């Protein structure tokens, strides 16, 4: 089965990003496909490469980046939600005249159309949030 | 991408206080470009999103409630509001703003987009969907 996954709550405050991560891993291990994971609302905060959690805690962004690298996941961060919350890739930082960018490897910034497209192209859409 | 699916946007939260309602509406507007069969559901505190006379001046947040009235232009014409959620909050149909659309199959007659349905009917509407996005 093809699963589309949405993460709609921020890391550490809420378990959604962790549960989604475990769900995606388990689904892939069972032979299912996860063509895309879409980060929305505060879920976009998962994608910052500047997060530094204590060493004995899980590193949510790194978990996702490593899973994306290993399994070829498409991790999409909503551009409108990201810009509100100060998350920019290098292109957007330049376009907006900002002096830094902070999107971690394995994530890409794109539009809400990617969320709709994921709903059309997958068999089930699973949202992780409140 | 010629396939048409039934998309339901479930709005469960008040319009202000959190960003869910606004960012849900942003998905609806973008999603309209994809020519899907779109329905919006309003339940729990989500029914407050459609109340008339909203004034956000005191909290310094944009009042986005007029945007609902533009949904007809995006061919989003099915807004279902749960009766029990209204009653539990002391609200009635007349507390909601009028949202209408022009029906191109009926000589562009102006028709209401908002329909008040029971909790049981809402369950049937949800069961009938392909993709449910909950906000």
UniProtKB/TrEMBL annotation, chain A:
Keywords: Cytoplasm, Transferase. One of its GO terms (cellular component) is sulfurtransferase complex. GO terms for molecular function: sulfur carrier activity; sulfurtransferase activity. It is found in: Cytoplasm. The keyword Membrane does not apply. The keyword S-adenosyl-L-methionine does not apply. One of its GO terms (biological process) is tRNA wobble position uridine thiolation. NCBIfam families: PRK00207.1 (NF001237), sulf_tusD_dsrE (TIGR03012). Belongs to the DsrE/TusD family. This is tRNA 2-thiouridine synthesizing protein D.
UniProtKB/TrEMBL annotation, chain B:
Pfam families: DsrE (PF02635). Coiled coil: none annotated. Transmembrane segments: none annotated. SUPFAM superfamilies: DsrEFH-like. Gene3D superfamilies: DsrEFH-like. Belongs to the DsrF/TusC family. This is tRNA 2-thiouridine synthesizing protein C.
């Amino acid at each position: 089965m093809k699963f589309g996954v949405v993460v709609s709550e921020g890391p550490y405050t809420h378990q959604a990003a962790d549960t989604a991560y475990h769900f995606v891993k388990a689904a892939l291990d069972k032979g299912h496909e996860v063509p895309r994971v879409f980060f929305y609302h505060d879920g976009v905060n998962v994608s910052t490469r500047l997060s530094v959690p204590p060493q004995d805690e899980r590193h949510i962004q790194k978990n996702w980046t490593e899973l994306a690298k290993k399994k070829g996941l498409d991790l999409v961060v909503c551009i409108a939600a990201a810009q509100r919350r100060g998350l920019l890739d290098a292109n957007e930082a330049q376009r907006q005249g900002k002096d830094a960018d902070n999107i971690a490897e394995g994530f890409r910034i794109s539009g809400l159309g990617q969320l709709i497209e994921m709903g059309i192209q997958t068999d089930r859409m699973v949202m992780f949030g409140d | 991408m010629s396939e048409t699916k039934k998309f339901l946007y479930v709005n469960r939260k008040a319009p202000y206080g959190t960003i869910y309602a606004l960012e849900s509406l942003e998905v609806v507007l973008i999603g309209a470009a994809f020519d899907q069969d779109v329905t919006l559901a309003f339940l729990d505190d989500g029914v407050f999103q459609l109340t008339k006379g909203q004034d956000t001046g005191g909290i310094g947040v944009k009042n986005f409630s007029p945007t609902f009235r533009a949904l007809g232009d995006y061919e989003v014409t099915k807004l279902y509001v749960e009766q029990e959620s209204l009653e539990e909050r002391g609200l009635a149909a007349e507390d909601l703003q009028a949202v209408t659309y022009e029906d191109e199959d009926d000589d562009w007659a102006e028709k209401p987009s908002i329909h008040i349905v029971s909790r049981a009917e809402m369950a049937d509407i949800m069961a009938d969907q392909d993709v449910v996005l909950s906000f």
